[in-house]
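Hey team,

Filing this mostly as a record. A colleague (T.K.) asked me to run one chain through the structure pipeline before their review meeting, and I want the input and output archived in the tracker in case anyone asks later how it was produced. No errors, nothing strange. Just documentation.

Input sequence:
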Amino acid sequence: MKRLQRLQNQRSKLVVGLISGTSADGIDAALVRLTGNGTSTRIRQLAFVTVPYPKRFKELVLKNSLPGTGSVDLICELNILIAHFFADAVKRVARKAGRRLSSIDLIGSHGQTVHHLPYPKRAFGKTIRSGLQLGDPSTIAQLTGIPAVGDFRTADMALCGEGAPLVPYFDYLMFRSRTQNRILLNLGGIANFTALPKNCSSHDVVAFDTGPANMVIDALMKKLYHREFDRGGKVALTGEIIPGLLATMMTHPYFRQQPPKSTGREMFGNMFLPKLLNYSRGLRKQDVIATVTEFTAFSIFDQYNRFIAPRMKTDEVLVSGGGVHNVAIMEALQDYFRHATVGRIEDVGFSSDAKEAVCFAVLANETISENPSNIPSVTGATRPAILGKICLP
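Output structure:
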């Protein structure tokens, strides 16, 4: 406990944030210097790396993320194997920054999501919500010699929350404005946004997953073009939108569901894909990609119109995540949000690619500082909670 007390008393810390998203392509690692905590937090990013998973490893992760296709022995092995990969990413980002591993004070790890069940279920007289993040934080701590905080979702879920999204707390700390109504939009496998009314308190924050961002595009690129993704949106830009297909996708019941809400591969992964492929038979491949790309932007705007616009007209949409590199998505977003400025979070001094990794560095610091870092109005939890498990080497 003495080590934890020293960490709590340090005003400035070197912290590594780690995440692998729903796309399961690899690990993002950011090394930051954090000063203070809570609303006084200040961040200086020192290094960022993306470490790809080994070849064919993504398919193994995805196979074990859905009922009926995984096995308990493989999930046990993946939990530890992914922790080894995460520890390697810590070492890689430390080397890039020219820092000794022993100089790093803390690690915050989101882990690798394999399944997310945010809706209440009755079992043996109990009502539960559950999810599984692989990449055991205790293993990460032992392999690096650095205290690690991980498994951030479960405390919120124990309090009847959905365990997600967790980024809105970070958005509130870093991006609230006295003069602008802002939306922070992240385009990973799933799209999520945080609405920050000008001069807001944490109680004013509204945030939720809007639906798929890159997930459906990537899956169809794999099926139709045998490529991992549509680099720069080049394929989408050569196609034409198929109105009937777009309208069919927008009938998904998730879009009518009231926040708080969160989603993932369970809704928009392999169960969603066969319907699209059946509808798309005989259509031009580039038109299908153009349509599912438009679907990402349109569903985001639809969720804004349904649930945010009645309470806040946005002035700025600041975008992060891999989707910022897709020109077709970004152009479509600006067309829909024509009353606002659509830009990247680089415009306010942050890295689009590193944002979520930096977020989990901040969340780990909040845990060590004993600060609650969920937002109950966002997740649906009954009260604020200190998130994560602290693992000492």
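Quick notes for T.K.: The domain at 167-348 is CATH 3.30.420.40 (Nucleotidyltransferase; domain 5). The mean pLDDT is 95.
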